[in-house]
Every structure is written in C-alpha cells, then in structure tokens.
C-alpha cells in the first residue's frame, strides 16, 4: 500500500489557490496541481494496486481524468480543502465504476471494484458482531450505495470513501478533511450504519 497521507496537502492555502484557478489564474491552477498531485495520484495507485489489467487502468490516467472532471469547467467557488477532497473522491469513484462496467462488457476481470470495498466489508462484519450477520452485497452494490449516503450526509460519504475505498487511516482522513479523529469516527459510524440499513432493507437501487 502506498503511504502518502502523512502530511496531506500542506503548503499554500489550497482553498485560495483553487478559487484563483476557478477565476482563470493559470499560475494558481499549476500550484494546485503541484500541491495535490502526490495525494491524488497515490489514491489512484491504492485503488488499482491489484488490478491485472494495468494497461487499462494506469494511475496517472485516472488522476488526469479526475482532475479535469473536478476542475475543468468549474465556475463555483470552493469552500474548503474538505470540499475539494470530497469532489475528488466522488469523481474517482465514478470513474472507477464507469471503467468497471466498460471492462465487464469486454469480459475482463475487474479486480479494483472488489478490492475497493474490502475494508468496508470487514468493517460491516465487525459492526455486525452481536447484532446478527452482516448484510450480503457485491462490490458494485456497495459502491452505488455511496451515492445514497451522499444525499443524506455528504461528509459521511467523503469520510467512508477516503477511509475504505482509498485506504486512508482515521488519522490521515482527519488531517485531509480538517476534522478531529472523533469526528471522523462519528461520520464513519454513521455512514456504515446507513449502508448496513440500506442493505438489510434491500434498498440498493
């Protein structure tokens, strides 16, 4: 696993740079790329680290696609580093889901879809101790439920994406999103409970 979150996005005020880039400041856009590239690239590396079809899923390509999606034609101001990280996590998740669907139509094995929710499945099983078996779900079902969680609690969805899909520790998520570890734990528990409830009720569409 790539360990790159020890000092996430330190240096220039990322919110200021992002909003200057939105206003068309080319130097600010370059500075944003320099500031966040290491973290976002490592997220992509972790997401596809066990992928057998490496030529189809190069981390650098994923980063470029995600960065264009997040910043390409944006006009609205960014609120915070947390806001930006949430957008990056959503965009990368959607890119991976879309790529998985396309690869499956070509009968290619897609390892990253399964790998991306291993930690979440483990956490759901741990949560289930003493209250019954963990709900069963395939990987794509779990990924799609993040969209449902997003509508209920955007910050919980961001925490779960970073924590479980992109393999960040609780301390790393805390630093990236400028939350206390207690807040990260709270949002993580809420998100897992939400997903467990939806799976139990069969509300995954």
Strand composition percent: under 5%
Give the biggest sheet. none
Fraction of residues in helices?
55-70%
Low-confidence stretches: 1-11
Radius of gyration: 17 Å
Task: Give the helix tally.
Answer: 10
Mean pLDDT: 79
N-C termini distance: 32 Å
CATH architecture annotation name of the domain at 117-205: Orthogonal Bundle
Question: CATH top level of the domain at 117-205?
Answer: Mainly Alpha
The chain-level structural class is mainly alpha
Number of DSSP strand runs: 0
Secondary-structure element series: HHHHHHHHHH
CATH topology grouping of the domain at 117-205: Arc Repressor Mutant, subunit A
User: Which of globular, elongated, flat, extended, rod-shaped describes the shape?
Assistant: globular
Could you explain how this protein is built, in words?
It is a single chain. With 205 residues, the chain is mainly alpha-helical. It has a domain at 117-205: Arc Repressor Mutant, subunit A (Orthogonal Bundle). It has 10 helices and no strands. The chain has helices at residues 14-22, 26-47, 59-71, 81-105, 111-115, 118-128, 139-152, 154-165, 170-177, 181-201. The two termini are 32 Å apart. The model is unreliable at 1-11 (pLDDT under 50).
């Amino acid at each position: 696993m790539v360990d790159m979150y020890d000092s996430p996005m330190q240096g220039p005020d990322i919110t200021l740079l992002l909003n200057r880039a939105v206003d068309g400041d080319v130097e600010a856009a370059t500075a944003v790329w320099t500031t966040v590239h290491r973290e976002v690239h490592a997220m992509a590396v972790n997401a596809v680290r066990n992928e057998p079809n490496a030529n189809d899923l190069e981390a650098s390509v994923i980063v470029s696609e995600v960065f264009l999606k997040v910043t390409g034609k944006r006009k609205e101001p960014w609120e915070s580093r947390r806001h930006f990280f949430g957008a990056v996590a959503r965009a990368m998740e959607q890119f991976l889901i879309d790529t998985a669907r396309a690869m499956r139509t070509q009968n290619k094995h897609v390892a990253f879809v399964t790998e991306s929710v291993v930690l979440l499945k483990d956490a759901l099983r741990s949560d289930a101790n003493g209250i019954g078996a963990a709900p069963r779900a395939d990987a794509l079902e779990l990924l799609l439920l993040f969209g449902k969680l997003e509508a209920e609690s955007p910050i919980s969805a961001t925490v779960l994406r970073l924590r479980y899909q992109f393999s960040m520790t609780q301390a790393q998520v805390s630093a990236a999103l400028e939350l206390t570890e207690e807040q990260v734990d709270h949002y993580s528990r809420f998100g897992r409970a939400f997903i467990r409830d939806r799976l139990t009720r069969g509300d995954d569409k």
